[in-house]
Amino acid sequence: MASAQRKIRVAVIFGGKGPEHAVSCMGGGNMLRSIDRDKYEVVPVGITRDGHWVLAADEPARLTAGGSELPSVESVAEPGRSVVPWADPAGQAVATFNEPGEIPNLLGQVDVVLPVLHGPFGEDGTIQGLLEMAGVPYVGSGVLASAVSMDKEYMKIVFQAKGLPVGPHVVLRERDWPPAGAIAASPVDLDQDLAHKRALDAIAELGWPLFVKPARGGSSIGTSKATDMTELQASIDNARSYDPKVIVEAAIEGSEVECGVIEGVDGGPPDVSLPGLLQIGGGEEFFDFEAKYLDEASVMVIPAPIPAEHQQEIRRMAAVAFEAVSAEGLARVDFFYTPDGQILINEINTIPGLSPASYFQKLWEASGLEFPQIIDRLLETARKKRPGLR
Q1: pLDDT tens across 304-350, in order?
Q2: Are residues 258 and 333 both part of a single domain?
Q3: DSSP designation for 178
Q4: Distance CA 170, CA 67 (A)
Q5: Which of 45, 99, 118, 163 is 20 to 30 A (C-alpha) from 85?
Q6: Residues 193, 264 share a domain
Q7: Domain identity same for 266 and 365
Q8: pLDDT tier at 86 (50, 70, 90 boundaries)?
Q9: Centroid of chain to Cα 131
Q10: Is the dihedral of CA 132, 138, 144, 148 positive or negative?
Q11: Chain centroid to CA 132: how far?
């Protein structure tokens, strides 16, 4: 009698050192809950906030948000089960350390990796580069697409080069906008003073109100609204606590519309979900962290209640954005839709929120594709990738 076929071994990696640790844990739990266990053997791997890699309990219920309580890898780490460093094909350990940031040899023993990591140290090309060097297949975009899409400055540059309209914005580096009081407290630097004046002039052209964000962040963490110079300074300081580079954007009057995108089958064009329109129901001024993950009053209307031709244009632009940054696997593309029907692209997320509260899953379910099917397609696409340059 023929032996039973071995299941495909998948490492689901979640948590991480970035500020979106809890969001990643919620997404990781949703993956553990949704993967077809008849086909896949799942290995949950968590990265703690300080960078340790650990085997995690395969218990999705412990990776959900309960009221104001947010999940963490530390809460589901298996006692004494730190993941050991990478081993070579002969099984010899390359190193014998067990420190934060080490590469676990366990990933060399799986068929494919499903990263559910957000923000710096996970969505920005870092873990993608690590997996590329190790020759381990993984779901999602490669190094370049991940890095470009994580950085709102360069993402917008690529979008504009491909003819996609973006909203007015100004990028601030530390030289452009020193910390509060730094100019008065330090010797006069004419070049720095000139850079600050140019930044002030550019921001003045945006008008009020303004939205201030870390240039390389997500989940609206570190994002705030400013209506005057005092609030602007506080908002910049807040965003800079997450990223030394900050982006200041003009407020766009209108609604937020999102589309899910999945890499096409066998090299075909990407598939795009129906667009959904966000409705914030909890009294928040904008779609902040609480509205995204903790406020059940916020909903998404799918399909977006806008003219059919505008729905199609948004879906077309989502596909263009996906290919503009050379994305792979999956993404969510976000837009602004103004009262007069103007469409502006906001950003692309190469590892979109995958928690039960996130909209990537809901967009595809409304489009006729159940979440386990999506995960299966992503894993099969990743396993078919040829090694080497993408």
Answers
A1: 999 999 999 999 999 999 999 999 999 999 999 999 999 999 999 99
A2: yes
A3: P
A4: 37
A5: 118
A6: no
A7: yes
A8: very low
A9: 18
A10: negative
A11: 19
pLDDT single digits (tens) 278-309: 997 655 565 554 554 455 657 999 999 999 99
Q: Which residue has the tokens 């995958």?
A: 354
337 strand-pairing partners: 255, 343
Half-sphere exposure at residue 210, Cβ-oriented, CA atoms within 13 angstroms? 29
Question: Do 59 and 109 lie in a common domain?
Answer: yes
Burial grade of 288 (CB within 10 A; 0-12, 13-18, 19 or more): buried
> What residues contact residue 330 under an 8 Å CB cut-off, 6+ apart?
139, 140, 260, 261, 262, 263, 350, 351, 352, 360, 374, 378
Residue 33: strand, helix, or coil = helix
Mean pLDDT of 142-156: 98
Could you give the C-alpha distances from 266 to 119, 237, 272, 318, in angstroms and in order? 29, 46, 16, 20
Spatial separation of the C-alpha atoms in residues 54 and 110, rounded to whole Å: 15
Is residue 249 pLDDT above 60, yes or no?
yes
Please, are residues 44 and 56 in contact by the beta-carbon 8 Å criterion?
yes
Measured CA to CA, the distance from residue 61 to residue 242 in angstroms comes to: 30
Give, in degrees to the nearest 5, the angle at Cα 324 between 207 and 146. Answer: 85
Number of folded domains that form the chain = 3
CB crowding 55-88: b at 16 or more within 10 Å, else e: bbbeebebbbbeeeebbbbbebbeeeebbbbbbe
Helix (H) or strand (E) holding 309: helix 308-324
Domain assignment of residue 178, given as a range: 169-250
Q: Is residue 348 part of a domain?
A: yes
- Cα distance between the two ends of the chain: 41
| Alpha-helical segments (H) within 174-228 | 182-185, 190-204
